[in-house]
Amino acid sequence: MDAAKGEIIILGMGNKFFGDDGVGIVIAERLKSILNEISDVKVEETNWGGFRIIDLLSGYKAAIIVDALRTGFHPFGYIHKLNYKDLIHSVRMISFHDINFATAVEFAKEVNIPMPEDISVYGIEINAADHFSEELSEKVKASVEKCIQLILEELNERYGVVVNHNVFTG
């Protein structure tokens, strides 16, 4: 797919006040500075899930989601690459008053809200997001640059978006 202006959104999800849960936001903020001159890609951050993400994703051809994930099967900082329908362990997965990410996307499609056809998810394995902290743990912090590199590679290989990789030297 060739990316036309505004056809790709990168959405970092999380809450920077709950330690490792903020990893998606941290990655999105970094990507925003790296991709600030690339008109084909929009980078956004959100601490919401469910129905609220429909507005953020609506109208884009492709989306890359970055979020904290807790499966308990991998070490902290492990980077999962998933289909959006697999995003069942997100901290914003579900509340008693909302729906999970995959259901929100499918609901939007059912009611003819244009959603990205191509959605990939990068989930960074975390331990817990139940304490106040504005710092990432060392293991999760170590995964940030690697995840950014994986996303930049996906932008290049899947969508033809070329980014100057010298951003990692400075």
The N- and C-terminal alpha carbons lie at a distance of: 31 Å
CATH class type: Alpha Beta
Q: Any idea what the CATH superfamily is called? A: HybD-like
Question: β content, as a range?
Answer: 15-25%
Q: How many structural domains are formed by the residues?
A: 1
Q: How much is the average pLDDT?
A: 82
**Strand order within the widest beta sheet:** 2-1-3-5-4
Percent of residues in helices comes to 25-40%
What is the CA-atom radius of gyration, in angstroms? 15 Å
User: Main sheet, how many strands, which sense, barrel?
Assistant: 5 strands, mixed
Extended strand count? 5
Blueprint (SSEs and pairs):
Blueprint: E1 8-13, H1 23-34, E2 41-46, H2 52-57, E3 62-69, E4 79-83, H3 101-110, E5 118-125, H4 138-159
Parallel strand pairs: 1-2, 1-3, 3-5
Antiparallel strand pairs: 4-5
Helix pairs in contact: 1-4
